[in-house]
Amino acid sequence: MTEPLLKVEGLKKYFPIKSGILGRVSNHVKAVDDVSFTVQEGETLGIVGESGCGKSTTGRMLMRLLEPTEGTVTFDGQELTSLSSNDMRKARRDIQMVFQDPYASLNPRHTIEKILMEPLNVHDIGDPKERKKKVHEFLEIVGLSSYHAKRYPHQFSGGQRQRIGIARALMTNPKLIIADEPVSALDVSIQAQVLNLMQDLQKELKLTYIFIAHDLGVVRHISDRVGVMYLGQMAELADTEDLYEKPLHPYTQALLAAVPVPDPEFVREEVTITGDVPSPANPPSGCRFHTRCPFKMDICSKAVPIFAEVEKGHSVACHLYEESRPQ
Amino acid sequence: MNERKTILDVKGLKTSFFTDDGEIPAVDNVNFHIREGEVLGIVGESGCGKSVTSLSIMGLVPSPPGKITGGEILFQDKDLTKLSEKEMRGIRGNDIAMIFQEPMTSLNPLFTIGDQLREAIKIHKRDWSKKQIQERAIEMMKLVGLPRPEGLMKEYPHQLSGGMRQRVMIAMALLCDPKVLIADEPTTALDVTIQAQILKLIKNLNERLNTAVLLITHDLGVVAETCERVVVMYAGKVVEEGPVHTIFNDPQHPYTRGLLESVPDMRFKKERLYSIPGNVPKPGTIKTGCKFAERCEFAFGRCIEENPELYQTADNHQTRCFLFDPKEVQSHDRTVIKS
Predict the structure, then answer these.
(1) What distances in angstroms separate CA B60 from CA B15, B43, B54, one per listed residue?
(2) Closest Cα in chain B, distance from residue A297 (Å)
(3) Which end of chain B is more exposed for a tag (fewer CB within 10 A), N or C?
(4) Portion 38-57 of A in contact with B at CB < 8 A
(5) pLDDT of B338 strictly over 50
(6) Neighbours of B112 (CB within 10 A)
(7) What are phi and psi of A70, to 5 degrees?
(8) Which residues in chain A touch residue B277, judged by CB atoms under 8 angstroms apart?
């Protein structure tokens, strides 16, 4: 197997909780707690999970928009976590991000041209004339027209704004795009347009995607491999087909069973989990899912399950599969 | 099953917003009815008028700028649009109750859950003793599956999770045994595992208490799972209405078909998603013709010139599309749209 484009090892992010008048750190919110995965060039890795599972924090740490507490991120042979902030800025030329809210992520006072030119200015790409040409070129690539360049964000609909967000991410010819819930603010019919656009661009420009979302249908559609996160940890990671057809982790099974299916004839399995996600400031001992797990054993509240391969390319962190692992 | 009595009948409802740009019709001549104990879904994308419809029923359209300009909303032979605010207050919460998308903004953060539940009972049941009120509140909390109700009564909304808050809202809505429960995107702010629990609860309560439910959502999965009948709205109009099985298995309006096609299905991978071209038109911009015509691949001359009506295409199934006009059926091959 070739060297992965992105390699994440033991990534952690602890946010301190300060209390009292002295602001002493009394505890930590373990937003991301020991997450490791790799991304191959040209593939789409989907990361799913419910709110508070740490998927967005993970995405931000990969670009060091948030400093990891621990762990390393290696991109294209270069360890990002040890770079100076200046070198990191240069490295971001190859890693770009698309955000969820196309209303909040575009400056309302700038024209689209200015917004799209910004990454070129920051990374000092081309001269002003070339930059302008490139803006117009990318507007067309994402399905808008070059006359849109003079307009302001409020003149566009949500779907068009998300296209602009994608165009901005593409301006520097990045290798990796981290998309954090890129379609969840959009209506279904517009969502399909943006997903199709992202797939076309991937083929054309040979992009690698990390696609963070909570919608399991969307993630299945776009991803080659999918990782499921729960309370700051990776519960399961496998090829998309494997994960959806034979999920191993009880959490993945419950998550898949809970999704409403647009087919009234479909009889779904009884949803087996109850209750809410526990607080990440005080996660359950042992396996973090044991408080809601229908297959809980004695060991689950005592020992942390190891996240490791059970079958080729299918990793899971669950005590149920401890024995079936290749030794 | 069709013998159940109609409990709420919306006829020709028109709700407009009066802005500097003139009158913007958000809901334009909408007709539908709910029968006793039925779960009816209204589905559509943002701006289709589904929420304004529900607010109109509750008499909660912000006025100004909003106003119900036409039509009637018949509930037990009373036209709700003609009632005074005082009379409406007697109906709201008592006969028709509503739950909203974001349970945090619907609960007062400064009062305990108990305070808020008790207040809601007190308003409608003035002659009840304190003990009766307390018992009723606890009974409802048990009914919606809230753990340790006595303890929760003393807690504040921020101490509860999103799913629990929505359960409190449902408990509050059902305090006075309403005949109709309007649920406006009740699970949109919740995670899927919690959503599944809340939907199960709503369905369960509908069966046990025989409360009719009007479920407003953008999520076709939620509709398929919970509703018996569906109303599909687009740009302030009902474009299709029918039993849930018919709508999902034999959708007729090009918009409904497009919408169903564009949802990524969790159960299998589609090669490429179908997408409806263009955007939802701004309310009020399309004056004549079918509002969906400019995005419709089957549109023909008449679609731009005339307003289509709802055509009966089967029992209980209606579609607002000229392709289903009996006059057009001969000239237009309907197999195109069935493919």
Answers:
(1) 12, 20, 9
(2) 22
(3) C
(4) 50-51
(5) no
(6) 16
(7) -150, 165
(8) 193
Do B199 and A260 count as a contact with CB atoms less than 8 A apart?
Answer: yes
Tokens read off for B303: 């679609």
> Tens of pLDDT along B160-210?
888 888 889 999 988 888 999 999 998 888 888 888 888 988 998 899 989
Give the model confidence (pLDDT) of A47-93 as tens digits: 999 888 999 999 999 999 999 999 999 999 999 999 999 999 999 99
Q: A110-124 burial by CB neighbour count: b if 16+ within 10 A, else e?
A: ebbbebbbebbeebe
Q: Which of A221, A257, A264 sits opposite B269 (nearest CB)?
A: A221
Region for residue A173 given its phi and psi (left: phi exceeds 0; alpha: psi -120 to 50; beta: otherwise): left
Cα–Cα dist B130/B153, whole Å: 14
Task: Please give the Cα distance from B31 to B43 (Å, whole number).
Answer: 14
Q: Judge whether residue B331 has pLDDT over 60.
A: no
Chain A CB contacts of B196 under 8 Å are: 257-258, 260, 271
Q: In chain B, which residues have their Cβ closer than 8 Å to the Cβ of A231? A: none
Of A50, A189, A240, the CB nearest to B262: A189
CA A323 – CA A23 distance, rounded (Å) = 46
Contact yes or no for A63/A97 (Cβ under 8 A): yes
B287 burial (CB, 10 Å; 0-12 / 13-18 / 19+) is exposed
- Cβ of residue B280 closer than 8 Å to a chain A Cβ: yes
* Interface confidence: ipTM more than 0.90: no
Residue (of B198, B164, B200, B193) closest to A289 by Cα position = B193
How far apart (Å, rounded) are the C-alpha atoms in residues B12 and B78? 15
Nearest residue, CB atoms, B196 vs list A160, A193, A258: A258
Give the closest residue to A288 by CA, choosing from A33, A17, A8: A33
CA dist., res. B310 & res. A283, Å (int): 55
Cβ proximity of B337 and B298 under 8 Å: yes
Asked if residue B221 lies in contact with residue A257, where contact means CB atoms within 8 angstroms, the answer is no
Q: Which token pair is B214? A: 């009007």
How many Å lie between the alpha carbon of A3 and the closest alpha carbon of chain B? Answer: 28
Helix axes B162-174, B192-209, angle to 10 degrees: 20
Cis peptide leading into residue B64 (ω within 30°): yes
Residue A73's alpha-carbon distances to A30, A78, A213, A269, in angstroms, are: 18, 8, 21, 39
Interface test with A, best of B199, B215, B230, B275 (most A CBs within 10 A): B275
pLDDT at A1: 59
> Residue A234 has which token pair?
């990776």
* B157 phi and psi angles, rounded to 5 deg: -50, -40
B163 CB near a chain A CB, below 8 Å? yes
State whether residue B161 sits within 8 Å of chain A by CB. yes
How, if at all, do strands B66-75 and B78-79 pair? antiparallel
Distant-in-sequence, close-in-space partners of A66: CB < 8 Å, separation ≥ 6: A13, A57, A60
Strand partners, B216: B42, B184
Q: Which of A176, A199, A212, A171 is nearest to A63 (CA)?
A: A176
HSE-CB of B113 using CA atoms within 13 angstroms: 30
Which residue reads 């982790």 in tokens?
A: A249
* Residue type, position B255, single letter: Y
